[in-house]
Amino acid sequence: MSALLLFIFLFLIPIVLLLGKSRKSSKKVPPGSLGIPIIGQSLGLLRSMRANTAEEWLQRRIQKYGPISKLSLFGKPTVFMYGPASNKFIFTSDNSTLSNGQTQSIRRILGERCVLELSGQDHKRVRGALMSFLKPESLIKYVGKMDEEVRMHIQMHWQGKQEVKVLPLMKSLTFNIICTLLFGIERGPRRDELAKWFPQMIEGMWSVPINLPFTRFNRSLRASASIRDTLKELMDEKRVELEQKGANPHQDLITCMLSIYEQNNEVMTEQEILDNARLVMIAGHDTSSVLLTFLIRLLANEPSIYAAVLKEQEAIAKSKPKGEFLSWEDISKMKYTWRVAQETLRMVPPVFGGFRKTVKDIEYEGYLIPKGWQIFWVTNMTHTDGRIFPEPTKFDPTRFENQSAIPSYSFVPFGGGPRICPGYEFARLETLVTVHHLVTKFSWKLCSDNSFGRDPMPVPTKQLLVQIMPRNEV
């Protein structure tokens, strides 16, 4: 008996273990190459983004390797996935499979406690705090204030001008709206200080995370630290206002986050407030300014669509006493204008894509994706798929008349599922109020070509220089 046990131990058990190991490794990682350590394919992707050929760059990967392939981006082994099913897997997988995990450059610039990085109960708690301020029921109170900001902007930067550069003006507008509505920062030295550091913080978001002097990443880290210090001062002031002066908890986003408690009376941490304030600054500033810029560009190329938007907006203007601010009811009437904005988002999504991270070895579509690898998805890959959106290069707002006809997880400019951007309604409100005033006060034509690159947001040639002509006010 002892000899038999010895035989099993010495010969059969190693064979069983070997077979088990073989079965475990029978799944292969996706095809592709990780390239040069740390750098990988990062520079190739960034170059193609700046040349506006990133989709072609990725299509070549798809043709060579299929819809799932491995590469290395921003210092991490990565799996690129493409298609509605992949989008659904990425957006709906819980934190036992995929965790929020941005690139090292984004994580270090925005901080490790922003909602992009959190998972599970922490993600739910912080997202809930953001949503308590950004949900439609809360935004109703801010329509008039946003209207006032847009009118002031147009009076200062558009009226009396013959030509304007649209992108910097839209960035200025959205930055001022964020400062006023989200942070309660009045015009003055503090806002000017943030305006100085803000572009530098953004420029290194997608960069190789090598922290050497004179690199984009280094400049972004220093700018992020300066913004954090400014927001820390602001947060301390608002804490005093809240605790000693009885400030309205919903007067701005930071005050709202300071006042949020969960059932266990756990307040948001200081780091969470500061990290998410920087995230909201970037999300509310860049996505909206890019959407507005390219919406103006596309309306200049589509006279019939411009005329239809104008008709809808003039009807709203004529229904109101002269000078009265827009209301939430007016916003709800701008259905065609929002379909035009959605088609703009389909053709030129401000966010190129995003990342999540595997928390364990997972199998997907017959491949093994090891624990700790990044999952990379790209917005425009389904937006320009002719099987999903026929004639994808044609600007056609009627695609969005019947939202249910669009396959799930195909139109994803704001992400999808439980991780859809919490600022979606804020961006919608900001866009519609701005378009209302622009189309009822001006017409315009392009002074530059239609080309653009990504850095990492879309940037049109000459920052979209347009000639503007005033209209007779309604």
From TrEMBL:
Cellular component terms (Gene Ontology): membrane
InterPro entries, sorted: Cyt_P450, Cyt_P450_CS, Cyt_P450_E_grp-I, Cyt_P450_sf
Signal peptide residue numbers: 1-18
Membrane topology: Single-pass membrane protein
Localization per record: Membrane
Chain sites annotated for binding heme: 421
Keywords in alphabetical order: Heme, Iron, Membrane, Metal-binding, Monooxygenase, Oxidoreductase, Signal, Transmembrane, Transmembrane helix
Cofactor(s), names only, from the UniProt record: heme
Tagged with keyword Cell cycle: no
GO MF annotations in UniProt: heme binding; iron ion binding; monooxygenase activity; oxidoreductase activity, acting on paired donors, with incorporation or reduction of molecular oxygen
CDD domains xref list: CYP90-like
GO biological process, one term: sterol metabolic process
Pfam family of the protein (one): p450
Protein family (similarity comment): Belongs to the cytochrome P450 family.
PANTHER family the record matches: CYTOCHROME P450, CYTOCHROME P450 26
Protein name, UniProt field: Cytochrome P450
Source species of the chain: Turnera subulata
Lineage summary: Eukaryota, Viridiplantae, Streptophyta, Embryophyta, Tracheophyta
